Amino acid sequence: MRTAATLLIAAATLLSACTLPTNALFHSLCTPPCWQGVTPGETTREELVKLAPTFPYYEEENTSWWDFPQSVSPAWEPTPLPIARFNMDPRRWNSGVSVLLVDNVVSRIEISSSWSLFGPKGMGLSLSEAIDAYGEPTDLILGYGCGGDLACLYIYLVYPEIGTVVAAQTFEQPPVIHVEPELYVRSVAFMPPEDTDVYLGEENSKFSMDCLRSSFSSPWQGFVALQFPDSMSACED
Known about the structure:
The chain is an alpha+beta fold. It has helices spanning 4-17, 45-51, 127-134, 196-203, 209-215, and strands at residues 63-67, 70-72, 83-88, 95-102, 105-113, 139-144, 153-159, 164-170, 176-178, 184-190, 217-219, 225-227.
């Protein structure tokens, strides 16, 4: 896996290669699953409050805290509520950061873009650039995407050793899916390594994860065409 120095070089390459400023969200001196000094499973809410102003594109008016079942925006003081979410949403760039906390400890970090039919207008990150930054994944899983008439699917690149999942968008449908370097990355999520399957299950709640694992996953083979069963409907719960 990549060292911190390699990740820094890769992030700098992303910044120079792409014109959209949100690529700086991937610039981090610590290695995954750590991001900007925040480590899932370790960083507390109080520590996150102190680190948040150092995030790329941080502006207090574009941040919010959601303490379930109520919301406070913004509210920096820790609370006893067991589940909370910190959002940083610089809307003019159509991309943002969401941090989930459980029992006042960071559980997950997700960098994601708003949906766009017209290609990489959010994060400006392609599948090949994500692999340059994070290395080759262990495997990939085909999963639920846009839904509705657009019916896009997500190709999830899974890095269980470093608690990282990259989701790329495709408008192809089984049985043949082309894993192409220019596919548009919709999100990158960081979590404790043992939680990768939990995250994938939550993202694909309409499907059985056992079924997806057995029928719609593949070891990483590079940028190739993959053959799957004709329909994912058999995996629907």
